[in-house]
């Protein structure tokens, strides 16, 4: 029998400022991220290690360090999905999606491009947001531990090319 998903509203506000030029969108926060109330909170997710490698700096551990790394490098961060039914953290279980309204970020920051963290973010971005947004969106390999075929080094190479162009 298929497990029913729990309907959850995204608990984390978008992170951006007036200097953000790149918007990174994930799909929906994991259980660990929802508990920590900040993005990519699961220690096995390689997002913070990848950014540290891209910008040649120590891996940020605290939320203030993570916020600083993003904002110092012109990166805004949020997710495509505002609410959905989900079982645990499994992207494959996502149902009944309501997308986030990106208008707040796009009107408050000079975003030049959008990067999508993995295929699930790309799927829902294309399904719900792409027609409204007049900004290039590039799908990058997911930093999730489920994407085990990609090492941190390989991820950093792909992400560096997109972030530093």
Structural account:
The protein has 165 residues and is of the alpha/beta class. It has a single domain (6-163), classed as 3-Layer(aba) Sandwich (Uracil-DNA Glycosylase, subunit E), CATH 3.40.470.10. 32% of the residues lie in helices and 21% in strands. It has 6 helices and 7 strands. It has helices at residues 31-36, 47-54, 63-72, 103-108, 119-128, 152-163; strands at residues 6-9, 22-26, 75-79, 81-86, 95-99, 113-117, 137-140. The strands form 2 sheets. The protein has a 4-stranded parallel sheet. The chain has a 3-stranded antiparallel sheet with strand order 1-4-5. Strand 4 and strand 5 form a beta hairpin. Helix 2 (47-54) packs across helix 6. The radius of gyration is 15 Å and the shape is globular. The termini are far apart.
Observed structural traits:
Uracil-DNA Glycosylase, subunit E, 32% helix, alpha/beta, 7 strands, 165 residues
Give a short overview:
The protein contains 6 helices and 7 strands. It has 165 residues and is an alpha/beta fold. The protein is globular, with a radius of gyration of 15 Å.
């Amino acid at each position: 029998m298929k497990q029913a998903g729990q309907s959850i509203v995204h608990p984390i506000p978008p992170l951006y400022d007036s200097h953000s030029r790149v918007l990174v969108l994930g799909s929906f926060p994991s259980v660990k991220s929802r508990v920590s109330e900040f993005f990519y909170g699961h220690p096995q997710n390689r997002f913070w290690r990848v950014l540290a490698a891209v910008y040649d700096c120590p891996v940020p551990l605290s939320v203030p360090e993570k916020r600083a790394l993003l904002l110092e490098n012109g990166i805004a961060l949020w997710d495509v999905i505002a609410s959905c039914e989900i079982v645990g953290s499994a992207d494959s279980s996502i149902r009944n999606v309501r997308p986030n309204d990106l208008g707040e970020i796009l009107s408050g920051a000079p975003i030049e491009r959008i990067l999508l963290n993995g295929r699930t973010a790309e799927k829902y971005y294309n399904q719900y947001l792409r027609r409204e947004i007049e900004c290039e969106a590039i799908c990058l390999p997911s930093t999730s531990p489920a994407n085990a075929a990609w090492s941190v080094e390989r991820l950093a190479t792909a992400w560096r090319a997109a972030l530093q162009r």
